[in-house]
């Protein structure tokens, strides 16, 4: 609930930032800096800034949690066994929120509600990216040289945003495609 409140405040601030930036673009000192960026592109990214910040914060917390668990495991002070990413299954609510905010983002593009919806969709992308990465982990676990494949996959996710969106899309469609089950069944058939 607190995250939602902070996100609403952030989107409101981002809209103020867009207005402020547009007025600054007309000043002679800054006009040269903004001439190479189309105005609509700048407005689009400024409106998505709160969602990007929240998504990055979630990603950073996740990385810190993984590193803390690895350190605790190495020093034998871990309170719980490290969960495998292959076992991650999201509950139903992210898909419900995805459908609602996706509809709002499409039908209210030019409004403040559309900006809120786009930011919520960005945050949801981190959840679905995790779900997609669980598919990648399952697939890489069945291949020879799985560690190299896994490291390569993570490098691609970090370096190429479109690859990350593709992995997130796999996470969105996982309940219907059941890719992890198919990968495990195919591996079971080979043995």
Secondary-structure element string: HHHHHHHH
Evaluate the radius of gyration.
20 Å
Q: What oligomerization state is this entry in?
A: single chain
Counting DSSP H or I runs of 4 or more residues, the number of helices is 8
Helicity, as a percent range? over 70%
pLDDT < 50 runs, ≥5 residues: none
The description of the largest β-sheet is:
none
Instruction: Report the principal-axis shape.
Output: globular
- Percent of residues in beta strands: under 5%
For the residues shown, what is the average pLDDT?
A: 81
| Beginning-to-end CA distance, first to last residue | 48 Å
Annotation, overall tally of beta strands: 0
| Sheet/helix structural class | mainly alpha
Detailed description of the structure:
With 191 residues, the protein is an all-alpha fold. Helix content is 81%, strand content 0%. The chain is built from eight helices and no strands. It has helices at residues 2-25, 28-34, 39-74, 93-107, 112-141, 146-159, 161-177, 179-190. The longest helix has 36 residues, at 39-74. The protein is globular and about 65 Å long.
């Amino acid at each position: 609930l607190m995250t939602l409140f902070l996100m609403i405040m952030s989107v409101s601030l981002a809209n103020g930032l867009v207005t402020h930036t547009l007025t600054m673009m007309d000043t002679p000192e800054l006009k040269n800096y903004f001439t190479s960026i189309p105005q609509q592109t700048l407005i689009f990214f400024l409106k998505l800034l709160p969602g990007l910040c929240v998504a990055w914060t979630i990603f950073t917390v996740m990385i810190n949690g993984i590193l803390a668990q690895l350190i605790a495991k190495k020093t034998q002070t871990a309170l719980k066994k490290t969960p495998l990413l292959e076992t991650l299954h999201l509950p139903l609510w992210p898909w419900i929120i995805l459908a609602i905010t996706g509809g709002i983002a499409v039908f209210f593009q030019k409004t403040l509600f559309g900006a809120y919806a786009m930011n919520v969709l960005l945050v949801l992308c981190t959840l679905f990216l995790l779900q997609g990465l669980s598919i990648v982990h399952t697939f890489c676990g069945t291949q020879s040289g799985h560690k190299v494949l896994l490291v390569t996959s993570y490098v691609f996710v970090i370096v190429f945003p479109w690859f990350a969106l593709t992995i997130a899309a796999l996470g969105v469609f996982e309940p219907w495609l059941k890719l992890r089950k198919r990968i495990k069944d195919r591996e079971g058939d080979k043995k």
